[in-house]
Design goal:
Layout lengths: L7 E11 L2 E10 L2 E2 L2 H7 L6 E12 L1 E6 L1 E2 L2 E2 L7 H15 L1 E8 L4 H7 L15 E2 L2 E4 L23 H7 L2 H7 E6 L6 H12 L2 E4 L6 H10 L1 E4 L28 E5 L7 H10 L4 E4 L11 E5 L2 E6 L2 E4 L12 H12 L3 H7 L2 H7 L16 E4 L5 E6 L2 E3 L11
Parallel strand pairs: 1-4, 5-8, 8-9, 8-10, 10-11, 11-12, 12-13, 13-14, 14-15
Antiparallel strand pairs: 1-2, 2-3, 4-19, 6-7, 16-17, 17-18, 19-20, 20-21
Helix pairs in contact: 6-7, 9-10
């Protein structure tokens, strides 16, 4: 039998995240993929070409952030004239943090902004040259509730009373097919729930409920039509009430329940609320940063879309208000804080930033897992879950071979 030509790398002296456990084992990589060593040993009679000592650390899939508005001074909704520069530098910067795949997120914007930026936010492979993989855009708005707009510009919001034609006019249906991963919308906004099924069928994207004043009944109807995600749980939504818990109530459903993004920075969601969500639906949690352009930069004034925001002391507010406008957290920080807030295991916390986001997007055969055939996007972590080494498509990413710049 002809032997595969690619170099084989073995990760050893480690605990590998597999089958919902941390297992003392080896991991093998060839040609950018996780491989089954049985074929290497018994059929090809090969031994590893490169051996990497993980020094007793944890080997996990690379982190996946499905909601991030910007970082390193760049903003996906505002930097329309330098959008390729923004994607390049954010992708490379995130990779060095341990985030190996992400959904660039746009806030509610005018149609001309979507038509300009979406072609630059579509899927692209992760590599040393590209940085973290882009999984497609997360379009947050503008089909959201004015009462729960949060840090979204009121003048951009709209309804879908004309069904698919409104989405086509706003985003371009072809743009959704080619470049989007999912869209956040409010179920109660005119035309939304009636159009969800058709929009999914027409474009293949996922739908999230968020920035919404929906009742539980409205949220449940959207879920039945195909909305499988809740955007930043507890934020910008109908507050929990015992007789009508709103979108939050879907976590208590007796049958299937949606995934939910949760910003675990200690600012957006109280630790007790994180604990409630964890106990209600642990397998649905997707840790997200909702980071904006000031992530990894000093305090000061920055942009979120076309709005000015004030960043100080770890908090982000729309300038001159007390309205929270994203975070400056990293996903690695959110993973550690999730354990602190909930007492969850390392496995659970890691899967909230790897497996669950991949499952939500329907890509868990290749991302968010270390199963055979998956992309070799790998982290080596110490026992405190600090990122020690990062690999993208099987190649180690370091500050020497992944260079990016900040927009100051």
């Amino acid at each position: 039998m002809e032997s595969s030509s690619g170099s084989i790398t073995q990760f050893y002296n480690c605990l590998v995240l597999k089958d919902h456990n941390l297992v003392k084992d080896y991991l093998y990589v060839q040609d950018g993929k996780i491989i089954d060593p049985a074929k290497m040993f018994w059929e090809e009679k090969r031994t590893p070409d490169v051996r990497i000592d993980c020094k007793g650390g944890i080997v996990a899939p690379g982190y996946i952030d499905v909601q991030i508005n910007g970082a390193f001074g760049y903003d996906f909704s505002n930097d329309t004239d330098i959008i390729e520069e923004a994607v390049e530098n954010i992708s490379k910067g995130l990779l060095l943090q341990g985030c190996t795949a992400y959904c660039p997120t746009t806030v509610s914007s005018r149609p001309e902004v979507y038509h300009k930026v979406l072609p630059h936010l579509g899927p692209r492979k992760g590599s040393i040259e590209n940085g973290a993989a882009v999984l497609g855009a997360h379009i947050e708005g503008p089909f959201i509730s004015p009462q729960k707009k949060g840090a979204h510009e009121l003048a951009t919001l709209r309804t879908a009373k004309n069904g698919l034609s409104d989405f086509d006019e706003c985003y371009g249906l072809e743009n959704l097919r080619k470049y989007a991963a999912y869209v956040t919308m409010a179920p109660e906004v005119e035309g939304i729930t009636d159009t969800i099924s058709a929009l999914i069928k027409e474009t293949g994207i996922s739908i999230a409920s968020g920035h919404s004043n929906a009742t539980t009944a409205q949220a449940d109807e959207a879920f039945k039509k195909g909305a499988n995600m809740i955007t930043h749980l507890f934020n910008a939504m109908h507050p929990f009430h015992q007789r009508d818990p709103g979108i939050i109530g879907l976590l208590g459903a007796s049958d299937s329940r949606p995934f939910y993004g949760i910003i675990c920075d200690g600012i957006h969601v109280h630790p007790h609320s994180v604990m409630i969500a964890y106990y209600a639906h642990p397998n649905g949690a997707c840790l997200v940063t909702d980071a904006m352009s000031a992530q990894s930069l000093p305090d000061g004034f920055y942009k979120l879309g076309e709005m000015d925001v004030d960043v100080h002391g770890g908090h982000v507010y729309i300038k001159g208000t007390n309205t929270i406008a994203g975070s400056i957290a990293t996903l690695a920080e959110c993973v550690r804080k999730f354990i602190k807030f909930t007492g969850a295991s390392k496995v659970e916390a890691l899967e909230n930033a790897t497996l669950h986001p991949a499952q939500m997007l329907g890509i868990s055969d290749k991302k968010g897992t270390l199963t055979h055939g998956a992309d070799a996007d790998i982290l080596i972590l110490n026992q405190d879950l600090d990122v020690q080494r990062v690999f993208i498509a099987g190649v180690e990413a370091t500050s020497n071979n992944v260079r990016f710049k900040q927009k100051l």
